[in-house]
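Quarterly update from the structural biology core.
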Amino acid sequence: MNRFLLLLTIILMYSFPAAAVSEKTLMEHRLSEYVSGKDATIGIAVIINGNDTVAVNGDKDFPMLSVYKFPQALAVADYCKRHDIGLGDTVAVKATELKIDTWSPLRDKYGISDLTVTINELLEYTLQLSDNNACDILFRLIGGTQAADSLMKSMGYNDIHIISTEDEMHKDLSLCYLNSSTPIAMARLFDRFYREIERNGLNTHRVIGEIMTSCTTGANRLPAPLKSSDAIIGHKTGTGDTNSLGRIIGINDAGVVYLPDGNTYSIAVFIKDSAYDMAETEKMIAEISELVYKSLP
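Predicted structure, tokenized:
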């Protein structure tokens, strides 16, 4: 397949003017060549200026892991709108919800005790720091994972499945694969979300967007090649444990990039069942991000 794409590109380059060979075609070929031979399943989707879509394994299912905290945040915004409450309203948290055997900067800050926190703070912990306890507290608030899953289906994203809480996935790693999305579906969700913010979206959506542009996780992933530029990225990462075969269940990153020239693109890179270590897998996401960034005119 990759040899065919290479041959097709060469034929197009010599049969037609250079301008006729689209950046989209060349980017797709370069991405296909990059993932070829990697000891992992890699899915990529890029939507340029809301129109052109480039994808490699874009319609395959991948475990979202903490990337699902983005669609969850949209479900929280929907809940707030339907119940006429604001992000400054508080949520009572029981000490038993601050589990000790999971990633939780929220628990590390407040300790294990009953407390009250705002919805906004919980969103900051989930979206910026990928806090697992904060995630499950928000699921409890909105009525469970089914509330987020139903919202995705009502919005037309039938390939985004939100089934299990963080606590449930921690107890049974196989459930990680059920919380799934295709790269195309996630790239489309990010593209739609940020474009609706630009068209005077909900204030809660604006706050969520701002939180993700301040994301502190995954600096070695999608943002890596953008550090020396004036580009702005809003994104959400996902990181999995090692499965029974000794492979990393998933390392992901997805978001939207605003370029200084006014162009934008949404991008989702999902890597599942990686035989490489964390640093090597993150590096692949960074290299894919760089390839996309440098392929744009």
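Residues 150 and 244 are 31 Å apart (CA to CA).
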